[in-house]
Amino acid sequence: MQLIECPWCGPREEVEFHYGGQAHVPYPDAPAEVSDEEWAHYVFFRDNTKGRFAERWCHSAGCRRWFNAIRDTATYRFESVHRLDAPQPHATELARSRRSTAP
Amino acid sequence: MNPGPSHAPRTPGADLPEHPDFLWRDPEPKRSYDVVIVGGGGHGLATAHYLAKNHGITNVAVLEKGWLGGGNMARNTTIIRSNYLWDESSAIYEQSLKLWEGLEEDLGYPILFSQRGVLNLAHTLQDVRDSVRRVEANKLNGVDAEWLEPDEVRKVCPIVNTSTDIRYPVLGATYQPRAGIAKHDYVAWGFARRAHEAGIDLIQDCEVTGFATDGNRVTGVQTTRGTIAAGTVALCAAGHTSVLTDMLGIRVPVQSHPLQALVSELLEPVHPTVVMSNAVHVYVSQAHKGELVMGAGVDSYNGYGQRGAFHVIERQMAAAVELFPVFARAHLLRTWAGIVDTSPDASPIVGRTPYDNVYLNCGWGTGGFKATPGVGWALAHTIAHGEPHANVAPFTLDRFVTGALVDEHGAAAVAH
Amino acid sequence: MTSPFRTAEGGRIDRATTLEFTFDGQTHTGHPGDTLASALLAAGRHQIATSIKLGRPRGIAAAWAEDPGGLVQIEEPFPEPMLLATTVELHDGLVAHGLPGQGRLAEISDSARYDAVHHHVDVLVVGAGPAGLAAALTAARSGARVALVDDQSEAGGSLLAGTDRLDGAPAPEWVAAAVAELAGHPEVLHLQRTTAFGSYDDGFVLALERRTDHLGTAAPKHVSRQRVWRLRARSVVVATGAHERPVVFSDNDRPGTMLAGAARTFLHRYGVLPGREAVVFTTNDSAYDAALDLHRAGVRVQAVVDARPVGSPRREECERAGIRVLSGAVVTGTQGVERVTHALVARFADGEVGAGSAIACDLLLVSGGWNPAVHLFSQARGRLRYDEVLGAFLPAEELEGLSVTGAAAGVFDLAGCLADGQRVARAALTALAVRPPGEDRLPTAPEPVTPAAPLVLWRVPDTSGAGGHTSFVDLQRDATVADIERAVGAGLRSIEHIKRYTTIGTAHDQGKTSGVLTSGITAELLGIPVQATGTTTFRPPYTPVAFAALAGRDRGRLFDPERVTSLHDWHVAAGAVFEDVGQWKRPRFYPRPGEGMEAAVLRECVAARTGVGILDGSTLGKIDVQGPDAAVLLDRLYTNMISSLKVGSVRYGVMCGVDGMVIDDGTVLRLAEDRFLLLTTTGGAAKVLDWMEEWAQTEWPDLRVHCTSVTEQWNTFPVVGPRSRDVIGAVFPQVDVANEAFPFMTWRDTTLDGVPVRLARISFSGELAFEVYVNPWYGVAVWERLLGAGRPCGITPYGTETMHVLRAEKGYPIIGQDTDGTVTPHDLGMAWAVSKKKPDFVGKRSFARQANQDPLRKQLVGLLPVDRRTVLPEGSQIVELHPDGQLPPPPVPMLGHVTSSYRSAELARPFALALVKGGRSRIGDTVHVPVDGTLVPVEVTGSVLVDPEGARRDG
Predict the structure, then answer these.
(1) Which of A16, A34, A64, A71 is the best mutation test for C, with the most CBs of C within 10 A?
(2) How confident is residue B12, by pLDDT bands cut at 50, 70 and 90?
(3) In the prediction, which pLDDT does C2 show?
(4) Which residue pairs, CB below 8 angstroms and at least 24 apart, start in B309-312?
(5) Chains touching chain A, criterion 3+ CB pairs below 8 Å
(6) Residue B302: which of A45, A48, A99 has the nearest Cβ?
(7) Which of B266, B294, C287, C367 gives C102 a disulfide partner, CB atoms 3.0 to 4.6 angstroms apart?
(8) Averaged over B174-196, what is the pLDDT?
(9) Which residues contact B18 (CB under 8 A, 6 or more apart)?
(10) C184 CB contacts (<8 Å, ≥6 apart)?
C-alpha cells in the first residue's frame, strides 16, 4: 500500500484514494460534430502507457478533490502530483506521436 | 527412478503427475517465418498448436520476452467455465470448454482438468435475478447450468456458510457441473511441447522492440534477438498488449491492472468444487495437491508491476473467512500478481487491426485462462483463412465505434 | 517421559516449571522457553513425520522458521494446520502430531479474536539480533519514533545461541540491558513474537504479532490471539540475519541431520543436546563453533569434515580439544533407518569424491554457508547480486528508505554487525534530518578472527548409486538433485521453469533452504554463472500467516458496515423482514402473524392503492447541489432540462454515462435559484455524487457549484394512497394540501412542533402521495405521528417489495434491476425525458451511434402471462417459437429477459416487465417464456399496466 501525496492534504494511505485513469483527455468541444470514431475514442480509448503516465486521482475518503499525478506504471512510483488549477505537467514530454506510423 | 526406502504411505493427492522427459528446444530465431506470434503464454502457444494441427502451418515462431507460460498463464487461478450471459460469450467459452474436455488427449499431457463444477453465489435479490437470467440463457445456449437454492448449495459445497445471519447471506447459486480447474503450467507446457514437436520455434528471452512496416503491412518484428521477418503477426501479449500496439500506432481500448492471487499450505480435502462470489468477493478452489487457491480483486490503478497492494489481500481474506469459516486458521503461504488487460465491456478484443497482416488478441481481463484452447483454435483459423472465425467475429475493435458492445459486467456479474 | 537429552544446566528455559504436552499420542514434558522442537529433542526424538511423496522419515533440521523438516499439526487447544515444531512455543496441554504433507482445518469455527493496528514511526528495525539492537538503540537515543520487531519470543537473535561476550560479560546480559534501555524511551515500540512478513511501497511493512499462542489454554479471551501491525516507517532497517545453508548429499534427509548453527541454538538457548555422537560437515568456519560447543557440553564429536582442502585456522583449536578434523573431505551419505547411525565420509578433491568410510554418529551437523535473509529487501524490489565468495545472494543496491544491515547484508562477525547496525541507523536518521545521538556507545566485542574463505559447494557428487534421487534439495517437496537434472534435461533453462518442473520452493518454507541451492545446482548443470540463473522471486509473506489474522475484525457484522435508518428499531419491532440493498438494511415487507411474503405484499399493495400506506424511503440518496452554476451542471448531467424547473417544483430526471446508458434516475427539487436537492437510487447515491464531482472538478472547474451528500441528514417517508391527503392534512394542519394549493411535483416547507419538515408531492406508485422529509433525529416521532393520524384509514407500513410492485404496475423502471448498463432512456420508453433542446449533455452523442439506431434494440415492455396464473421468475428468458410451435435446438435465439415480475392485487393477475428485442413493435404479440421445462405463453403489452392515464396521482 502506497503513501500518496494529496496536493491538498499531504501524504495519505492509498486506500483513501480513487483512481481516475488517464489525465488530460478533454471532452470534445462539440460532440455533435465529431465522427463516431472520434467519439468512440473519447468514450472508450485511453492510453495504457508502461512507464511515466499522467493520470487522475481523487482523494475520495479525504478532501474529495481530484488532482493529477505523474506516476510510473511499471514501478508505481509517484513522481509528482498537481492540483487541477496547476498547469499540465510535462505535457509536451508526455505527448505521444501514437498514430504517426499507423496506416 | 529409485526413491529409496519407503517407510510410510504417500499423502494421497499431494503429488502431481510427472512432466515428460523432454519439453522443447531453445532454438535460435530464423530470419523469417510465415507466422510470428508475439507472446509465449497460453493463448500464443495454443494458437501455435492449432496452426500446426488444424491448418498445417508450422513455419511459425512464438516470441516470448521472458519464459514460456510465465505471465498470466503461471499466475491465474485456473477456473474454467462457460456460463457467460451473452450469446457471443457463451459461444466461444463453450467451444473452449469442449476443447478442454478433450485436451488431455490432444496434448498427451496430464493437464489435470478436473470438472468439479463451479458455484457462482448470489447474495442479494439482484444477484438472484442476474443469476437466473444467466442460467436461463445458458440453458438455451446449450450450456449446462442450474440454479441452486441454499440447501442445494450446501450439498455441493458443505463448507460454504449458508447461515442466514451472516452479513450477506447466500441466497442461492448458479452451478455449472462441467466447469472446473486445470493445472496451468501443465497446460502451457502441453501446448508448447506439441508446438515444438510440430516444428514451431519457441523463442524465449526475445522481447519485441519494434515493428518494420510497409504501408498497411508489417514486414518484420524487431526483437532483442534481431529482426525477424513475418508473413503474419499475431499479438497475444495480454497485459503487455498496449506496449506492442503503441509501437504500431494502433490504439486499443484496454487498461492494464495488477490482479493478485494467493495460495495456502496443503490441506486435507475440504472444498470439493469451485466457489465464486461477487458481493463477498471470493473465488476459491482447492487445487490438486490440497492448497487453497484464491484470487483477489483487481488493483484499481493501471500497473505493469506484477504486484499489488496488501489491503486487497486483507480484504480477500476477510471475504474468504466470512464465506468459509473453516478457513480461519489456514495460512496464506504466497501471494503474487499478474497483469490483466481489461476492456470497456469486459469482453475480449480479437481480430483484425488497421494492418492487413496483424491480428490482435487481447482484453481478456481476468478470464483468459479458460479461453485458452478456444481462442487458440479461433485465432489459428483466423490467421489461416484471413477471416475472423465465427466465434471471435463479434469481438472486433470496431464494436466500440458502432456501440455494439458485448457487455459482460453489467449482466454476468462475476468476472474471472 | 523423561528428557534424557536435556543438559544439566544452562539455556534460557525456566527449569522450575514443568509443562506437559502430547505429541503423536505420547506425553512429554518441557519447560517455559522451550519450543515444541526443543522439547522433543530433549526427549530424544528427532523424527517428526514422514515425507509427502516418498514417505521417508523427516526430522528437525533447523531451529527456527527455515526448518524444512518438522511440520506439525496442532490439535489442542485448537486445530491449526501445518506449523513448524521449531516455531511453536511450548505450553501446558499442547497436543500435536507430525504432518506428512497436508494439514487439517478445524471443523468448528474459530472463536479467537484477531485485530490490526496502524503504527507510524521514523525508523522501523526488523530483527533484534546484534545489528538490529544496535540500530534500534541508536535510533532510540536520537529521540526518533522507533519500532523494533522480532519474530522470536525474546530479543537477542544469534546472541542467545552462542557463547559471545560483550563488554566482557555473556552477550545476553547486554541484550537485557539494551531491551531495558529501549523500554525507557517513550517513543519506542518494541514487539517480540512479531514477524515482519511483507515489505511494500513507501516504508509499509506488515508484521504479525502472536500475542497469546504461547499461553495455550491460559490465554485470556479478551486479548486478540494475533495482531497484524500495519507499520508505516520513514526508514526501514532490515536486520533479519541469515539462514544457514545445507550441502546436498545422498540421504541428507535422514533424521539426526541438522544445520550446524541450529545445534548451537538448541544447546545454548534451550539446554538440549541434539545427540550424543556428532559428525560436523562444513564448507566454512562457522560450524567449528558448533563442534567445539557441543564437545564442551559433552557430545562426542567424532569428526569435523571440512570440504576445503586446506581446512580452517580453527583446526588446531579442535585438535587441542581432541576433535579429529578431516580436511578435503565430504559427507557423501548417511546410514540408519529412522535416525542417522553413520555418516559416510570420503576424500574430496577437485570436485571428485575419493575413498571413504563410515563414521558412527547419531547427529550429523551440516553447514554449507549462510544465505542472508534478504526477503524483505527483495519484496521491496531491491535487486540482488550473487556473491561468489559467500555463495549467496546479497542486496545489490541501496533502496530509498530501506537499508539492510548485519548478516542480512553479508556481515557475519559480531563486532561488524554491531558497528554496521549503528552505522546504518545513523545514516537513516541523517537522511530523515534527525540528529544522530552524540552518546552512542557500542559494547566491546572480541576482536574478530578472520575466517578462512568458505568453499561454495552445493552438492556432493552422488556415489551411492541412487543417481541423485536421494539427494534432497527441497525436503518438503521431496525434490532431489535428480529432479533438477531431469528438468534441465527436458530443455528447461529458466529458474522459474525449474521451480515449476520440480516444485522446489513451493512448499511451506517457500524455499528458505532450497532456493539458493537450486540456483547453484541449476547453474552448475547448465554451465552458466549463478548470477545468470538468479533466484525465483521472493514473495510475501515471509512466513505463513493465518487467514483469520488478515481478516482481523472485518468478519460477521463488521465484514461490511451495516447502514440502517433512524427507524430501524421500529422496523425490527414491527417484525419487518429485511433486504440488503447496497450496505443498507431495508424492510422488504411487514408480515402479520402467519402471513407469508405473498400475502403480506398483496395486503400492503391493496392498502396503498385503496387507502394509505407508508414507506421508510430514507435510504434514497440525497445530494444538495449549491452554487450560481448549479443549474448549469445539472443540465449537463441530466438528459432532461433542469434549469427551467421553478423554485418550489420537482422534476424527474435521468442520468446517463458518456456511453449513453442510463446510470441513475430520481427526482430533483429546486430549493432556490442556486440550490437543488437531488434524489438518487439507494444503491447509486455514492456513485452519483462521485460522478457529479468528477465532472464539476475535472471537466468544468469554472462552474461555481458544490455537491454535498445529505442522505443521512434527511429521513424520507412516502405516504401513499388515495387517503394520504387526509393523513398529511391531519399531521400538518397549517399546510393547504388541496391539489390546487399543493399540486403534483411541488414541495413545501413546514414545521411540526417547531421541527422543520419538508413535504413533496412525488409519486413512485401512481397514487396520490406525499413525501415527508425530516431530520432523522425526529424521524421516529414524525413517523409515529403519521401512523397515528393514519390509523383511522388503516395506514399500512410497506416495504421495498410492495414499493417495487406498485412502481412496476406503473411501468417505472428500477435502475439496476430493469436496466443492466446496456439500456438507454429511449429503450425504457423515456424519450420524453431526453431533452431535444439542449445542445449537449453527458451521453447525448452516444445516442447517435449505429447500434443505438437498431430497431431490434431491447425495449422495456410489459408481459402478461396468458394463463393469468404464472408468476414468471425474474431473470427468465423470452423466446420465439419455431412455426411448428417447438423450441429449436440450442443455441436458441433469445428475445430478451424478464426484469421484474410480481403478482398484482390491482390487476388480479401476475405481470412482468421485460427487456425485449424490438419490444414496442411486438405489443399485442404472444411470445414464450421457458419456466421449469414448460413454455409459458405471455402477451407483450405496454409497460404501464395500472392507470395509464395517470388519473390517480391527484387523488
Answers:
(1) A64
(2) low
(3) 77
(4) B309/A1, B309/A2, B309/A14, B309/C200, B310/A1, B310/C198, B310/C200, B310/C204, B310/C206, B310/C540, B311/A1, B311/A14, B311/A15, B312/B260
(5) B, C
(6) A48
(7) B266
(8) 98
(9) none
(10) none
- Report the side by side order of strands in the sheet with C80-84: C26-30, C19-23, C95-98, C71-76, C80-84
> Are A75 and B309 within 8 A, CB to CB?
no
Report the first-to-last Cα separation within chain A, whole angstroms: 42
CA distance C807 to C615: 13
Bridge partners (DSSP) of residue C257 are: C364
Chain position carrying cell 494492418: B355
Q: Which of B167, B262, B301, B414 to mutate to test the interface with C (most CBs of C within 10 A)?
A: B167
CB within 8 A of A33, min separation 6: which ones? none
Domains of chain A plus CATH, in order, are 3-101 (3.30.2270.10)
pLDDT in tens, C589-634: 999 999 999 999 999 999 999 999 999 999 999 999 999 999 999 9
Q: Which among C101, C551, C820 has CB closest to B266?
A: C101
Residue A50 and residue B215: Cβ atoms within 8 Å? Answer: no
Residue in A closest to B315 by C-alpha: A15
Distance from CA of C688 to the nearest CA of A (A): 13
- Residue at B195: amino acid letter: A
**Mind listing the pLDDT tens digit for each residue in C31-80?**
999 999 999 999 999 999 999 999 999 999 999 999 999 999 999 999 99
Nearest chain B residue (CA) to C580: B124
**Quick one: closest CA in A to C846, which residue?**
A39
Q: What ipTM is given for this predicted complex?
A: 0.95
Q: What percent of chain C has pLDDT over 90?
A: 95
Q: How far, in whole angstroms, is CA B143 from its chain's centroid?
A: 19
pTM: 0.95
Helices (H), C357-460: 375-379, 414-431
Residue A95 near chain B (CB below 8 Å) = no
Lowest mean pLDDT among B14-18, B320-324, C437-441: B14-18
All cell numbers assigned to A92: 509536451
3-class DSSP state of C384? strand
Residues B117/B180, Cβ–Cβ less than 8 Å: yes
Q: CA separation (Å) from C453 to B275, C200, C226, C282, C313?
A: 55, 35, 43, 12, 10
